[in-house]
Inverse folding.
């Protein structure tokens, strides 16, 4: 049963598409953790290579989501894949840039661009 | 004397409304034949209320409500509805119309509805003008380790910062992110003394420890103290926890590439990026965050009036 509330997720070929369903406040950290486990289990089960996170609805977020994305990134990297983010808000781009994760993750404007970047 | 703009494409209905409202000596009436003409008149002169039909050529009542909400948000709009316009009336009410009166009972209900809406609007406008004169706002909160209060507190302080003209729409989100980081630090790392080393390595253990300490003394009895002073020029927020403090010098250097993937210090990095000034007292239990008004943003109310 899919009990995910914070993240919608489905596999598309070798890519696991993850979409936060709204802003991810630091205050829901304890809810992020079980959904993160669910997400990583789906990544393994579907034998995905990459993860694309569509941030369209996550208009703001802080260190908790950054931490969760970094956990995903480490698992993806371990399996030779890439993590891409798309549709970041202005403040969302700043958050990623300030934490310098834009040096580790692919940051793309749209979902199409992100899928293309992952295929390269 | 309240000035009312009556908008209706039917000359007969305009006359009917005029006849009903002219009995009120204190109301000044103006007329427009459709939404487009009404928009023009609203741009040329101030009105206290708009009374409009829904089905009109050029611009209908729903489009007119949207335009007024955007250009003159303080001007209330009353709809005159007739049979068959119920659906569009519901949409207009959702879009911000203040009230409606069915055309078939205009004689009985129109004047009273206008009086009621004008009274509320006048009160609202006076309050808004009074708040424009506010020069300083101070708050002080003390609360336990209740994560659910943090969201409300952050929202409250964001609203106050907007009201004081300290920030624009983008900055208000930045203030929210920074305050949330400071408060979460005070709660988890300060009062509950749960280090961030576990985070990212074993999130389950991290939150299990948080949950455990919320029930254990001395952690559970500690409070978070928040004070805020907002003026037209800056917002100063002070967050204090009752933990044992921490050594700021032990935080990883944000410029060290090897620290990039470590969880600790990320919140502080965001606080520093989104506030103009962030400082800790020597114990590490008190953080002061300052956001100064962006001089390029819209002027503070007393400057613009």
């Amino acid at each position: 049963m899919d009990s995910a509330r914070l993240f919608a997720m489905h596999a598309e070929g070798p890519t696991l598409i993850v979409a936060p369903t709204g802003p991810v406040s630091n205050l829901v950290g304890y809810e992020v953790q079980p959904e993160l486990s669910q997400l990583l289990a789906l990544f393994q089960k579907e034998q995905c290579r990459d993860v694309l996170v569509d941030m369209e609805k996550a208009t703001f977020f802080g260190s908790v989501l950054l931490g969760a994305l970094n956990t995903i990134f480490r698992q993806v990297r371990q399996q030779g894949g890439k993590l891409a983010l798309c549709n970041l808000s202005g403040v969302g781009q700043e958050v990623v840039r300030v934490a310098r994760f834009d040096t580790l993750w692919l940051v793309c404007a749209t979902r199409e661009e992100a899928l293309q970047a992952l295929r390269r | 004397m309240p000035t009312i703009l009556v908008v209706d494409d039917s000359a007969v209905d305009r006359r009917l409304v005029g006849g009903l409202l002219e009995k009120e000596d204190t109301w000044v009436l103006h007329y427009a034949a459709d939404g487009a003409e009404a928009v023009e008149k609203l741009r040329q002169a101030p009105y206290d209320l708009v009374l409009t039909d829904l089905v009109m050529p050029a611009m209908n009542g729903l489009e007119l409500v949207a335009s007024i909400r955007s250009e003159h948000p303080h001007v209330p709009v009353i709809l005159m509805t007739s049979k068959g316009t119920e659906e569009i009336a519901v949409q207009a009410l959702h879009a911000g119309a203040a009230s409606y009166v069915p055309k078939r009972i205009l004689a009985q209900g129109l004047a009273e509805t206008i009086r009621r809406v004008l009274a509320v609007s006048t009160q609202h406008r006076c309050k808004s003008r009074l708040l424009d004169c506010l020069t300083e706002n101070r708050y002080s909160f003390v609360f336990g380790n209740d994560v659910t209060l943090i969201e409300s507190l952050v929202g409250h302080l964001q609203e106050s910062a907007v009201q004081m003209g300290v920030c624009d729409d983008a900055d208000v989100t930045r203030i929210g992110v920074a305050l949330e980081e400071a408060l979460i630090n005070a709660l988890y790392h300060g009062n509950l003394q749960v280090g961030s080393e576990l985070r990212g390595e074993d999130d389950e253990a991290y939150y299990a420890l948080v949950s455990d300490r919320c029930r254990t003394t001395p952690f559970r009895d500690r409070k978070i103290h928040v004070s805020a002073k907002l003026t037209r020029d800056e917002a100063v927020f002070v967050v204090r926890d009752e933990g044992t403090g921490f050594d700021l010098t032990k935080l990883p250097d944000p410029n060290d590439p090897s620290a990039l993937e470590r969880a600790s210090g990320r919140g502080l990095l965001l606080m520093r990026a989104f506030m103009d000034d962030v400082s800790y007292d020597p114990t590490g239990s008190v953080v002061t965050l300052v956001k100064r008004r962006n001089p390029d943003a819209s002027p503070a109310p007393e400057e613009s009036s």
